[in-house]
Amino acid sequence: MKKNMLALAAILVITAGLSRHAAAQTITPPVTEAEKEAFYAKAIEYRVADIVKALNLADAAKASAVHDVLVDQYHALRVRDAAIDTRLRIDGKEINYANRAPQLALQAQPLHDRFLAKLAEYLTPEQVEQVKDLMTYHKVKVTYDAYCAIVPSLTDTEKAKIMELLKQAREEAMDGGNAPEKSAIFQKYKDLINLYLDAQGLDTAKAFKEWLASHPGTNSAVVK
């Protein structure tokens, strides 16, 4: 019996050792900075290619120039984000939109203005608007349409105010560091819209609740 127990113990030790060895062999090595940059560059190329394609520019030289302007802007935003995040780490703060927002407000505008000026060299005002929508996932139209559906009694003045605030959100969200940050920026403006509509005598919270009850399964984040 003792021999059997010793043999079993030896098998368990060997098996555990083999398992650890196998696990060690399958652990993915840390991603290098060069690999991160390569992945980001590839992702940006896909994103920019989609935007340029949607513009449907017949002039190949113009399409190439717009492509380069967009790539430069995304890389400039990445450099800005890295600087902001480094500062937050040094200060011992969590990296999130609430903490990033003050620095975004300071650093984004020069990049924003330069970017739009470069786009205007190659695109019409209507095409620049299209680029803004593409960079922010068409959130202006999606959110505006949602408000019109949820609060059907909106006046033309109220609709105009909603659109005005959503376009302000778009201008700011264009410079957001990522999709969640763009959504956070739009949320800030949706809160302002809700306050505005409530001040006009509309109970937006009640309207949203009733609309969601009659549209089960709908994503409430569109206007909430």
Description:
The protein is mainly alpha-helical. It has 2 domains: 33-134; 136-222. It has 9 helices and no strands. The protein has helices spanning 2-26, 33-55, 60-90, 97-120, 125-135, 139-150, 156-173, 179-199, 204-214.
What is the total tally of β strands?
A: 0
Q: Main sheet, how many strands, which sense, barrel?
A: none
Distance between the termini: 69 Å
Mean pLDDT: 86
Q: Which residue ranges are poorly predicted, with pLDDT under 50 across at least 5 consecutive positions? A: 1-24
The helix/strand series, from N terminus to C terminus, equals HHHHHHHHH
Number of distinct helices: 9
Radius of gyration: 26 Å
Structural class: mainly alpha
Can you give me a brief rundown of this structure?
The protein is an all-alpha fold and 224 residues long. It contains nine helices and no strands.
Features:
224 residues, 0% strand, mainly alpha
Task: Note the topology.
Elements: H1 2-26, H2 33-55, H3 60-90, H4 97-120, H5 125-135, H6 139-150, H7 156-173, H8 179-199, H9 204-214
